[in-house]
Each structure stands twice: as C-alpha cells, then as structure tokens.
C-alpha cells in the first residue's frame, strides 16, 4: 500500500493538436489531493471534467504540465508507468482474445520475467477473491461483461500494486451487474487492503464505494470529503445538484419580510417558507438567493397543516417510494415519500418544508452561504 499526493497539478493540451481546446484552457487546473495509505477514493464528476485525465497522469500515461505527484514518498512525475507500482483496470476490459483467462491474468507477470511457479501461486491466490477461479480455462469471447471486468481487475492486482486505479470499471454493465460488482469491489478492497482510486461519473458508485469523494468540474476540484459530508454539506450549488438521486431541488427565492418575520418567497406563486433561525443573521429583506432542499425534506402536510397548496404535476409510484413533481411559480420541484398514497395530475396537496434541512447558495457565485 502507499499514500497518494497530488500537489498543484495542471494539465493543458497543445492548442495546435487539440482544436477544441482554447489557449490556457486546462483539462486539469491546480488540482491538489491527498489519499491516505489504504484508503478508497472516488474521483467523481460529469463527462469532460478531467477525472480520467487526472487518473492517467497518476498512472504515467499522460504528461503533467506542472505540479507534482507522489506515490508513497516517491515523486513519480518522470517515472515510466511500469516503475510506479500501480495496477490499472480500464472500462473496456482490454483482454487478449486468443489467450484464456489464466494467461490473460499472467500476461503482465510474464512480461516482468516472473517464474511460472510464482505466477501460478499468485493467480491461485487472486482468482478465488475475484471469483474467476472456475473461468481460468475460458477465453474472453465466452465471458459476460461482469466476468470480463473481474478478469480485468484480477490482472491489475496480481502484480501486488501499491496503488490500484479503476477507470469507469462498471460503465459497460447493466444495472443488476453493476450492483453485484460494486459489492465485489468493496469486498475486494477490504481483502487486499490496497490504496484504490476509482474514476466514475455515477454518484451512486462513488457514494457506495469510496471512503472519500473528490468532486470535479471543469478540471477543478470542487469538494473532497466523505459521502455523508458532500451530501449533507455541499460547498456550492454544483455539488448540491450533482450529489443525490433525485438531485437536490435548487430554487431562486426572494427574502421578504412581514410582521418582522423573514420569508423565502417563491417568484410567481403564493408559496413562502419561514427563514430558519440559523439564517436570520446572514440574510435580509430584499436579497435574492438560491435555496436548496433535498426531495426527502419536502413534505406533504395534512388538512390541519399550514403548508401552501400546490398542484401535482407528475406522480410516480416506484414501489418502495413515491415521487411527486410539482410546479411552484417558475420552479419545478420533486419530493419523495414512502407513504402509501396515490395522486393524479391536478390533485391539490399541502407543501411543507423541513426548513432546518435547507441550504443557501449565493445567486452569483454559487458558493454556499454558511449560517
């Protein structure tokens, strides 16, 4: 195992070679990150945010424009990939069709001139962990997507890497197999105790697998923290809207005052929410802010409720939960309930908000307004 440190790492592509890249347009911009020895880190973000480029720089497959990368105590900026003691599993499996599973896993060890007895011993150790021990005589063409990815990961870890890098390992799998392999990867990490980095655009993968998540946008690190930290305390509007399924409701509201009491006022509607005490000292009448509320913190009031009346726009029964979409002025909101209720379009419900679970963001910068 080894810790991983990135210090002020930049990556800029040559403008002459990448026509879509503007001058001074960085694919990775001033990226700093520290991963502890044995930790599981998720690098999460939308397509094109620079997460795979970051992984490739760690692996040595991309040159660094500036900055430093350390694996353990060793600065690896100028080291060849094979000298970095890493294991790398790509999303497209990259197995050799003419070779059976045993020979695919053995390939890298044979390239390093490891003797066959030691190769056999390592494969027999790793194959049961990845549950491919009954596939060793099979060829890739006869394997399912999940089996191919297990072989792909087995080939990466058979080298006993200090650092295991997984680049979108589940992206080609169907929903059920993704769930199964997520569990397998989590179990594998605990068994081999290897520092692991996974790159993904799927926030559910990152939330379920990683000890900490690094969220990226436009080449920049937005937030780095545990799944619970980034879910409960997003640092900006982007993170708030990216983490969570369905995502956080983000609404533009005005701060109004009536009878010395402050309210969040939704434009174009009669809906208003009392400003919680924790925000009283940082907001004032006349301000416009972005209000964030998780779908589970929008509630349906009863007949005695003081909640505002709104119309149901869409009702979805998903078995374990019900999702209700409503339009409030110019905003389209989603709430989730586990109650056994049924609604149809046009039904009237009373909308309540768990005000203490709301989040505020600056209307211009998108940064969180902390109470």
UniProtKB/TrEMBL annotation:
Record bears the keyword Transport: yes
Keywords in alphabetical order: ATP-binding, Cell membrane, Membrane, Nucleotide-binding, Translocase, Transport
Molecular-function annotations in GO: ABC-type transporter activity; ATP binding; ATP hydrolysis activity
Family matches, as Gene3D superfamilies: 2.40.50.100, Nucleic acid-binding proteins (2.40.50.140), P-loop containing nucleotide triphosphate hydrolases (3.40.50.300)
Keyword Coiled coil: no
Any GO CC annotation of this UniProt entry: ATP-binding cassette (ABC) transporter complex, substrate-binding subunit-containing
One Pfam entry name: ABC_tran
SUPFAM superfamilies assigned to the protein according to its UniProt record, in alphabetical order: MOP-like (SSF50331), P-loop containing nucleoside triphosphate hydrolases (SSF52540)
Domain ABC transporter: 4-243
Protein name: ABC transporter ATP-binding protein
Organism, as annotated: Vallitalea guaymasensis
